[in-house]
UniProtKB/TrEMBL annotation:
One of its GO terms (molecular function) is acid-amino acid ligase activity. The keyword Transcription regulation does not apply. One of its GO terms (cellular component) is cytoplasm. It comes from Lupinus albus. This is Putative GH3 family protein.
Length: 568
């Protein structure tokens, strides 16, 4: 970046004004360049586009697809076939997407153009955010983990988006230039042991506490998880700082070496942190107290992450929580240009030059419409055409149009598409489950308790089948309240199919299973052990019976079961 930061941020805002004012033309051009770049791809050749690049021909020739439809092509790429299959130039890397509520990951093609979009979106978002929440020359506590990249048997790079993006030098330079330097050394972030990295993130944050202006993570769960860990290890962290000696729990030599460069004995700081921690009431506001110059917390806090907002705000105290960008391993969608709006009401403004977007209305007529043809107030499923070889790809997300920024829409994330819970004619989505848990949380809040995490399961082991909700709670609730919660959960599913099945007893009473503290951490650790990325991992909101390991973790940790008394 040659110009100074002020000129640069002015420039990115101006550029965004230009493209967002002319979204339809930009979309046409984006589609044209994607189709021209990839004209020689076998997939496009087989569809008879014959060089046409206009949206009308594109929609007439190219079918809407899901990941499953593209699997035969992706598998050939995985195996190392380097003819132009989905893209003109061979794909050199695949990324592992977790974009599912059922805990099943999938590989999607990756291209470096993702980085260009990432830098553009993050810079624009930063520049706009900085007008309301300015950050100057500080450091950032970034709770990220870079799981190692590997290779497919065909020699392609394999990893998560985070590992491709955050390990990229160009990206890091761009980020450092605009935001603030990440306080954790890169050697630490890249280490394989997630628990050790988390401990060091916390330690680095404390060492640089006066300089930290921003705390961030990709998903807000990571910040909550970090401070749940802090509750357990804060005294050990204080000891490390007091003595200037790193805890023996850190065993990775490269991490010890990197940390030894920044950890020096500082009894005064250790005493101060000790005083802060012992003076807090149930850890309320710990982040604000530990990082007095922090301006805000930045992490995706919508969709399935909304469940962690109460815990996040509890730890944050008065510090604002700003929800970040909206995107997927497949491609970017948009960013939050209204940082002071609470996450519950946040929308993401679409960048019309990242991908070519279509929207399938959830209404009677499911005919896809273009980016600028969407209606405010309506819900749609997103379809993407990307530079990395996905054409008319159903992302699997449902969004609602809340308005327009110039001529590009602003989208509220609603839920993953499709049904999460179904036994017969009932159809309940991820959002229906979330709302049921929110309703039960209100009963727990009366006892000053919070839901730590939750998931669900369809139990068909005996007739009639029934829904099971697993809740981890941050303390002990009375039997009476928990019984009420089970009934409340049951009554909260108001889809007509569920209601009639419950009344007719073709679906049995909902069962609440309360699990021990730490159960969801065990599930998290299980997924990490299976190679998932700690940065991107999301709790699966429904666990199928076939996922025997996760079902075993849940069931082994059940403290008590409560059967709903609704519809008796
Ligand atoms: P992944 O492919 O693992 O990167 O996950 C992408 C998925 O995460 C998206 O398809 C969404 O379902 C979800 N997601 C990403 N960003 C947001 C956001 N800002 N709000 C809610 N959900 C999001």
């Amino acid at each position: 970046m040659s110009e100074n930061l002020e000129e640069y941020t002015k420039k990115v805002i101006e550029e965004f004004e230009v493209i967002s004012n002319d979204a339809e033309r930009v979309q046409r051009e984006t589609l044209k360049s994607i189709l021209e770049e990839n004209a020689s791809a076998e997939y496009l050749q087989s569809l008879g586009l014959n060089g046409r690049t206009d949206p009308e021909s594109f929609k007439a020739c190219v079918p809407l697809v899901t990941h499953d439809d593209l699997l035969p092509y992706i598998n050939r790429i995985f195996d190392g076939e380097n003819s132009p299959i989905l893209t003109g130039k061979p794909i050199t890397a695949l990324v592992l997407s977790s974009g599912t509520t059922k805990g099943k990951s999938k590989y999607v093609p990756w291209s470096d153009t993702f980085l260009d979009s990432a830098v553009q979106i993050l810079h624009t978002a930063f520049a706009i955010r900085d007008r309301e929440l300015p950050i100057k020359n500080g450091k950032c506590l970034s709770i990220v983990y870079l799981s190692a990249q590997s290779q497919t048997k065909g020699g392609l790079k394999l990893g998560t988006v985070a590992s491709h993006v955050v390990s990229n030098k160009r990206y890091n330079e761009a980020m450092t230039a605009i935001k603030s330097e990440i306080c954790t050394p890169q050697e630490v972030i890249c280490a394989p042991d997630f628990q050790q990295v988390l401990y060091c993130h916390l330690l680095c944050g404390l060492i640089y506490r006066d300089q930290i202006q921003l705390l961030e993570a990709l998903f807000s769960y990571s910040i909550v998880q970090a401070f749940r860990t802090f509750e357990q290890v804060w005294e050990e962290l204080c000891n490390d700082i007091r003595e200037g000696v790193l805890s023996s729990r850190i065993t990775v030599p490269s991490v010890r070496a990197a940390m030894s460069k920044i950890l020096k004995p500082d009894p005064e700081l250790a005493n101060l942190i000790h005083k802060i921690c012992t003076g807090l009431n149930n850890w309320y506001g710990v982040i604000q107290e530990l990082f007095p110059n922090a301006k805000y917390l930045l992490a995706i806090a919508t969709g399935s992450m909304e469940a962690y907002l109460p815990s996040l705000r509890h730890y944050a105290g008065e510090l604002p929580v700003v929800t970040n960008d909206y995107g997927a391993s497949e491609g970017w969608v948009g960013t939050n240009l209204h940082p002071t709006v609470p996450a519950e009401f946040a929308s993401y403004t679409v960048f019309p030059n990242c991908c070519y977007y279509e929207f399938i209305p959830l209404s009677e007529d499911p005919k896809p419409v273009g980016l600028t043809e969407v209606n405010v107030g309506e819900e749609y499923e997103i379809v993407m055409t990307t530079r990395s070889g996905l054409y008319r790809y159903k992302l699997g997300d449902v969004v609602k149009v809340t308005g327009f920024y110039n001529s590009t829409p602003e989208l509220k994330f609603i839920r993953r598409s499709g049904t999460l819970l179904t036994i017969n004619i009932d159809k309940n989505t991820e959002n229906d489950l979330r709302l049921a848990v929110v309703a039960a949380s209100k009963l727990l809040a009366e006892e000053k308790l919070e839901v730590v995490d939750y998931t669900s399961h369809i139990d068909l082991s005996k007739e009639p089948g029934h829904y099971v909700i697993f809740l981890e709670i941050n303390g002990e609730a009375s039997e009476e309240v928990l019984s009420e919660c089970s009934t409340c959960l049951d009554k909260s599913f108001v889809d007509p199919g569920y209601l009639s099945s419950r009344k007719g007893n073709t679906i049995g009473p909902l069962e609440l299973r309360v699990v021990r503290r730490g159960t969801f951490q065990k599930i998290f650790d299980h997924f990490i052990g299976m190679g998932a990325s700690a940065t991107q991992l999301k709790t699966p909101r429904c666990v199928p019976a076939t996922n025997t390991k996760v079902m075993q973790i849940l069931n082994e940790n059940v403290l008590n079961k409560y059967i709903s008394a609704a519809f008796n």
